[in-house]
Amino acid sequence: xxxxxxxxxxxxxxxxxxxxxxxxxxxxxxxxxxxxxxxxxxxxxxxxxxxxxxxxxxxxxxxxxxxxxxxxxxxxxxxxxxxxxxxxxxxxxxxxxxxxxxxxxxxxxxxxxxxxxxxxxxxxxxxxxxxxxxxxxxxxxxxxxxxxxxxxxxxxxxxxxxxxxxxxxxxxxxxxxxxxxxxxxxxxxxxxxxxxxxxxxxxxxxxxxxxxxxxxxxxxxxxxxxxxxxxxxxxxxxxxxxxxxxxxxxxxxxxxxxxxxx
Length: 262
Fold this sequence. Notes:
Blueprint: E1 13-23, E2 36-42, E3 46-50, E4 58-60, E5 65-69, E6 75-79, E7 83-92, E8 97-99, E9 104-107, H1 110-121, H2 129-144, E10 148-150, H3 155-166, H4 174-180, H5 185-196, H6 200-218, H7 223-229, H8 235-246, H9 250-260
Helix pairs in contact: 1-2, 4-5, 6-9, 7-8
């Protein structure tokens, strides 16, 4: 695959967490998240249940496969015997991607196995590059099989989207984005809604809430600080927007996600 056709590179992958833990009970009814999740269960009997799949709602997790679940997918997990659970959460910069299924499945082959065993057996020594390389290998394989693609193939829109993703806390006006895309304001707004299914403002709001979700789950920062860092004027404005999208308050979200991570 030529370099010009690649959708992302290693620097586009931000690893959020790496978890490797023996779990007697691995059961949760709501694992939807605004980030990607790579899962491998070694030993034990376990499965994922995808709520919106028409086919293959239940996916068993033998040690011979790896699973990547994209952001926003509603699913649950369960086990009937103890599992050795490895999980990497990550986000991607660059243009948004469309995934053709609720999950991506990969064989647990030599290269992936080598990286994962290194991560597991040297937990204090691994750096970000090893999980990044593992994720990059898997996603490029998925791209080669045409299982993922860019949501938009319009370079003008992609440039504007990358600006929004790189600066989620900074409100960017349609006139600013249209100028960067070398388009008229009306033409840009119309094309964006046509390709992305929402207005630029709505898309930016979702990005800000996604950033807030990550901070709520993976930092000890106060709600006020998270609101400010996510681009909201105050806690009230932030909480209202958050609940409109996530259907629960920031405080409830943090409590639920912290319980789920144990």
